[in-house]
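Inputs:
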Amino acid sequence: MKNIYLVKYGEIAIKGKNRYLFEDALLSNIKNSIKRLGKFHIKKEQGRILIEPENDIDSDEVIDKLKKVFGIVAVCPGIKNEEISMDSIKEMALSHMKSICQNNKYTFKVETRRSDKSFPLNSMEISRDIGAYLLKNMDGQLLVDVHNPQIRLNIELRNSVYVYSKVIPGPGGMPVGTNGKAMLLLSGGIDSPVAGWMISKRGVEIGGIYFESPPYTSERAKEKVIDLAKTIASYTGKFKLFIIPFTNIQMEIFEKCPHEQLTIIMRRIMMKISERIAKEENAQALITGESIGQVASQTIQSLAVTNAAVELPVFRPLIGFDKEEIVNISKKINTYEISILPYEDCCTIFVPKHPETKPKLEYILQSEKSLYNMESLIEEAVANKEIIMIE
Amino acid sequence: MEEIYFDNAATSQPSSKVIDKMIDILTKDYGNPSSLHLKGLEAERHIKNTSKIFSSILKVEEDEIIYTSGGTESNNLAIIGTARSYQRRGKHIITSKIEHPSVYQVFNYLEEEGFEVSYIENDSQGYIDLKQLKNEIREDTILVSIIHVNNEIGTIQPISQIGEIIKTVNTNTIFHVDGVQSFGKMPITPKKWKVDLFSISSHKFHGPKGVGALYKNKDVRLRPLLFGGGQQKGLRSGTENVPAIVGLGAAAYEIYNELNENRSHIYRLKNLLWEGISNNIEDVSINGPNIKEGSPHIINILFKDIKGEVLLHALEAKNIFVSTGSACSSNQPHPSDTLKSLGLTNEEIQSSLRFSFSKYNTEDEVKKCIQELVNIIPMLRRFKAGGRHK
């Protein structure tokens, strides 16, 4: 008998001929997520991924990591035996029950699935016989309840026998890397990490882009963004974070454009730079944490004007979310505590007192005409980017 | 790019002599001073040696020195220890409005615990109101705690005069002085000044972090904060941090050995910086005392229409390290209480920077810093917050 983890996945099982691509991606993502915890044998097996630790490992640590791998619907820690016989199933079932039962009384039910149709008993019969065996051998600790049992003992007969009772929900979604790549604009606030997490959950590989404006923003603000990126990477796996020096561009806008348009023009240029990085990185979309009406630059008019700056699709997964809903997700994915550290945009110098809330593209384009140095400033900023590998 | 460190009031670079001594102790004399054997005795001797150094600098007895984890613990032990020990005599305690958080937060705590606290006002240069102090001291006043040199603006309180006032009105009132910024910068004579308790922090004068001292007049009883093995006569249980205490002693010895040279050197640097800034940059002023009166190592300057934090980061980019009196982040709506007590507006407080020097700084560094300020400030002023488009 060996300890194992059965990994269940949902959506990717229905992807027809491309199914193996999704399964291979999930397998490889699982490998990467737990490789530091010990040696594992990981393989596909009839609609499941099977993880066998080759040495002693901390099971809680493994489960914590697996709970963050997109594409996993559930993780079931259990035991495996290659011998397929009623005697071995009985032994496994009893040993598993003993390991999970304290001194209390429990209600239970046995559920059997078999893909090995040559086995002499059918699923119902196996469940019944094992149930009876457990009742007899657990010193009266167990009571049958087929509707609402405290313990659901699962037996799966495949090319081996698997027994488990815990079904720990995973994050769902699709394996990262199976749905292309997008660049996430990371600000250090609450929203952008959540947006990145959500798109990544759909199988999209991400890269990060952060605009820094020293001396108006500090090294600590940058540290904070790196910490946020690392938290996101605990779900997505490693990715590149691009840090773009932005001070000169902001000053140029500040000097040449009407101040109520500063934010909107600044955001348009951020989008343009991001698109450039995206193309270099072979990414097919941008991701932002915008949500309608949250601030002046996120009115429907502002979003339209910002959007017009680029050709790539811009994913805004939080567009219809309330702040509270976003905060709840950020708490769940552990980015909230980092996001609320006080270093973000410590200086309001470039924020106009009365920002434009209903910008018209034609006027913005008109204002941008005075930014005749902008192309070379953008090139300079992109050339001076810093790239950090986030793991 | 050479690093220019002008944040010595925050912490200072450890002296290489101090480091060598500490490595030596960590490597060889690692015994526990409470052990009965020879290794213990060696360690005990090292502590005694530091006490000897303090005894000669402060003109006090060797057993009047308690070792702590630093300035914060010294202040806590002095204030809470006195309050708890003498509360039957009275529950009135006095402090000023320009104390370090490790003093005023302790007073806030004691106020919650039922002590009555009087806060002494100060003038626009940071000097406390001696008349008010005299009037506030009562029969049931058990403690007065005053900072010697203010950590943000460098005001030096007339400690000797304050000691005289306190003891004249109530000879039983205990006088604690937070000397974290003054020790190492000027002669300190607690007994002459009628100071009963004096806090010292090692890392402010090129010693290691995590160690400090408290001078306690032997007639003063303190209730300890930490209980355990009864080390340091039960006043501060816990195995003594021998290497750090040795480092503390070595640093104290070194700084007082050349006190006058060090003093005039850092005073010259402070003057040079202010001359350079005031002659070349418009709209600047000193927060706190007159340049001749303040502590030689601290100067706090208001740069009008500049965000202090931005200027700090701009200097940082040139490898020059200074300090703001306040963080301008939204999470800290309360800028420096000290600067506020001088009558500065929030905007002025956010436009202020502290430069603090040590003996390791040079005139060239100061000149370089002036040059960088002259380059940076006009640019930063052009991009003034909320400024209108021309």
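Chain A has a mean pLDDT of 92. Flag for discussion at group meeting.
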